[in-house]
Amino acid sequence: MSSAEHYGDQARTNSMGSNSTPAPTSQRVEYVKASIAMLEHTSRCRDPACPSDSCYKLSRVMVHNRGCRRRRIESCFVCQQLVTLCRFHAKDCHKERCRVPYCQRIRRKLQERAMALLDEPSLLEVMDAARHLADITIDDVPPQTPLGQVEEDDEIVELPDIDPSQPSTSSL
């Protein structure tokens, strides 16, 4: 199988490798943690004879990802899984020069999103503004003309009463 062929075209299975129902949450969390640890190992490992079978398999997935043409055009299940695993890793990674694929790019995106959230007004700021509006008294509001009156050139003009039940006598 060449590096660009798609392992994901086979029957898709859950994270535990079976076609049964998904694993319970605690098992799934442990599986993801172990997968992240293997991703970190595989990213650092330079031993072609590494005794870990998982290291070999994951290195094949990384080779596939580098040569995959479907990754950009369509969705490749294998590439999606790798990128998802890299996202989980990147959320907790603090290394300046991490070798895990996509880690630095994902961390940069996460930082940009965090900065964008800081630029938006916080809920606390919005609540403070609302509290300030609630503190405004009648003395703070400029006077308005009474209903039925219009202010023209510093003079208040009384508007005629209009009875909606009577037909209009004025012609337009």
TrEMBL record:
Main location: nucleus
Region Disordered: start-end pairs: 1-26, 141-172
Residue ranges with Acidic residues bias: 150-161
The keyword Glycosyltransferase is annotated on this UniProt entry: no
Biased composition (Polar residues): 11-26
Molecular-function GO term, any one: zinc ion binding
UniProt-annotated location(s): Nucleus
One GO BP: positive regulation of transcription by RNA polymerase II
Entries under InterPro entries matching the protein: Histone_AcTrfase_Rtt109/CBP (IPR013178), TAZ_dom_sf (IPR035898), Znf_TAZ (IPR000197)
Domain TAZ-type: 25-106
EC number(s) per entry: 2.3.1.48
One GO cellular component, as annotated: histone acetyltransferase complex
Catalytic reaction(s) noted: L-lysyl-[protein] + acetyl-CoA = N(6)-acetyl-L-lysyl-[protein] + CoA + H(+)
SUPFAM superfamilies: TAZ domain
SMART domains referenced in this protein's UniProt entry, alphabetically: ZnF_TAZ
Enzyme class, first EC level, given as a word: transferase
Zinc finger extent (TAZ-type): 25-106
Keywords assigned by UniProt, alphabetized: Chromatin regulator, Metal-binding, Nucleus, Transcription, Transcription regulation, Transferase, Zinc, Zinc-finger
Highest taxon in the source lineage: Eukaryota
Protein name listed in UniProt: histone acetyltransferase
Protein source organism: Steinernema glaseri
